[in-house]
């Protein structure tokens, strides 16, 4: 259950090496989170992420259990077995769905299987894992499900419509899931960041209103505390996209990528 400060005491991250996810967990550790599960593909990066959280907690004198669990977004047939084992260990107060790939728009347009890889990871994998976790949270009667969407899902852009379409599907799915869970005690939060400076975007020119993993983490922590349904990062993107969403298509098409 959440503590007196509104922070989850136990967190499960799907996409355990995500820079945004790890920054978010650090915010929660500062607010008394004491159990963390990092789910991702086994390897040095996942091990290093777990070790880094343990070291940070120890530096602050906190006793935090950080465990890793093998998880592959592209293997939905394994999601129930893997994730139900985590929930069997005890209640999870917050699940953060943070995995995803950006792809290469120019190349992927000419390689259908590469495009499918993007959509299977960002959408199909998240639908599968999200439903497993949602059902587990509903069964325990409490918890938050936080899903990293993207501003790219608000309207298809020439520069990234394959990635954007996968995030649009995820965003719509998550909103509907939130409605389905209404009254169950489970809180669902959709997070829509703009361009975030991470490994995934390294080398790409930043878009206007670019942000950082830390800023997204702060917005998530605040959104969880106030049980928000949607969070834009930065907040100014909300009104900006409200305008762009209704811009005539010939004008929208001419916007820089």
UniProtKB/TrEMBL annotation:
<dbReference type="Pfam" id="PF00106">
    <property type="entry name" value="adh_short"/>
</dbReference>
<comment type="similarity">
    <text>Belongs to the short-chain dehydrogenases/reductases (SDR) family.</text>
</comment>
<dbReference type="InterPro" id="IPR036291">
    <property type="entry name" value="NAD(P)-bd_dom_sf"/>
</dbReference>
<dbReference type="InterPro" id="IPR002347">
    <property type="entry name" value="SDR_fam"/>
</dbReference>
<dbReference type="InterPro" id="IPR020904">
    <property type="entry name" value="Sc_DH/Rdtase_CS"/>
</dbReference>
<keyword id="KW-0560">Oxidoreductase</keyword>
<dbReference type="GO" id="GO:0016491">
    <property type="term" value="F:oxidoreductase activity"/>
</dbReference>
<protein>
    <submittedName>
        <fullName>Decaprenylphospho-beta-D-erythro-pentofuranosid-2-ulose 2-reductase</fullName>
        <ecNumber>1.1.1.333</ecNumber>
    </submittedName>
</protein>
């Amino acid at each position: 259950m959440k503590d007196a400060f509104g922070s989850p005491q136990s967190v499960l991250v799907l996409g355990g090496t995500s820079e945004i996810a790890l920054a978010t967990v650090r915010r929660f550790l500062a607010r008394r989170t004491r159990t963390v599960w990092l789910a991702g593909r086994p390897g040095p990066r996942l091990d290093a992420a777990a070790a880094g959280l343990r070291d940070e907690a120890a530096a602050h004198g906190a006793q935090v259990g950080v465990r890793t669990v093998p998880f592959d977004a592209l293997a939905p047939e394994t999601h129930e077995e893997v994730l139900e084992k985590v929930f069997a260990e005890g209640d999870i107060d917050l699940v953060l769905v943070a995995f995803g790939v950006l792809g290469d728009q120019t190349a992927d347009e000419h390689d259908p299987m590469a495009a499918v890889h993007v959509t299977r990871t960002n959408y199909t994998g998240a639908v599968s894992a999200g439903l497993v976790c949602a059902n587990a949270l509903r069964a325990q009667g409490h918890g938050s499900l936080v899903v990293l969407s993207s501003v790219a899902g608000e309207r298809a852009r020439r520069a990234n419509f394959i990635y954007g379409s996968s995030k649009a599907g995820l965003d719509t799915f998550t909103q509907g899931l939130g409605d389905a869970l209404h009254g169950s005690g489970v809180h669902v939060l959709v997070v829509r960041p703009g361009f975030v400076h991470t490994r995934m975007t390294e080398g790409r020119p930043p878009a206007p209103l670019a942000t950082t993993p830390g800023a997204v983490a702060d917005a998530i922590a605040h959104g969880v505390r106030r049980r928000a349904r949607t969070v834009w990062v930065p907040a100014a993107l909300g009104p900006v996209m409200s305008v762009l969403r209704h811009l005539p298509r010939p004008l929208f098409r001419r916007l820089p990528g």
